[in-house]
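Form P-L/3: holo structure prediction, ligand glutathione.
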Amino acid sequence: MRERRKEPGGEEKIDLNARMDELAEIAGWDELKLLGTWPSPFVTRVELALALKGLSQDLVGMSDLLLASNPVHKKVPVLIHNGKPICESRIILEYIIDEVFPVDGAALLPADPYDWAVARFWAAYIDDKAMCPFAITHAMADNVHAVHFVAPWAPMFKGKTEEEKAEGIKQILAAVETLEGALKGCSKEKPFFGGGTVGLVDIMLGAHIPGVRATEVLTGAKIFNAAITPLLASWTEHFGELDAPKKVLPDVDGMVEYVKRRHAQWAAAGAAAAAASKS
Ligand SMILES: N[C@@H](CCC(=O)N[C@@H](CS)C(=O)NCC(=O)O)C(=O)O
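OUTPUT (holo model):
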């Protein structure tokens, strides 16, 4: 609301900050809409960043709006900020963190440019090399679902032999050990990759915690193992105690059920396709 105050004995004075807020409200500058699906870790990242910034948004499911907003990849998340779409979770995080809401809530990127570069390096490592228990590919047109994995998770789930699966697990554990080293370097003996508070890397990796836990339940493999990666094990605990993850992270049991259901659907679809090709 516009606030006016009077100078003692003077004219009515306009409070400029309140006026800016009022204009933003009229122009809809702060309208946020998040296109996403449960339990996508990429969507969860954005929800985490928004929650950590104290921002709220409407979550909108996959629809024609997705095709219109992200015609290149047709993937969620898409953040629509005042009618303008921003695609790709890491880019959305940087937009939320750096570009548009830099002073709201906690700082999520380090002030020091070198630390910032290091944080971005590990954010890319998580996406490109280390993490993605599963990502759901949703073919919008015919509603056929398939799944694609980020190496080295494919052999773990899709390996045809026990040796192939064991090799997948070995590669995942090697990536997790690399992340243990990253945490040691970035945290400077504090609990998070961001130091005393969570930052970009914590959000990127934190969104995968439920998927990792669900994978542990489904495969019996211990991925965040306190005996091998103690820093990451205590990081998951500290992270899970924060309000934003408590509010936003999907629950592990629900995820396990979801993956089982999806796997059954894909198996049935595969069997039906094989039968059709024989007839
Ligand atoms: N690199 C993308 C990955 C997003 C992604 O894979 N999203 C999945 C859901 S987990 C999706 O929308 N898939 C739809 C499709 O592939 O058709 C990001 O970081 O935003």
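COMMENT: Strands lie at 4-6, 12-14, 32-35, 58-60, 78-81, 84-87, 135-139, 144-148.
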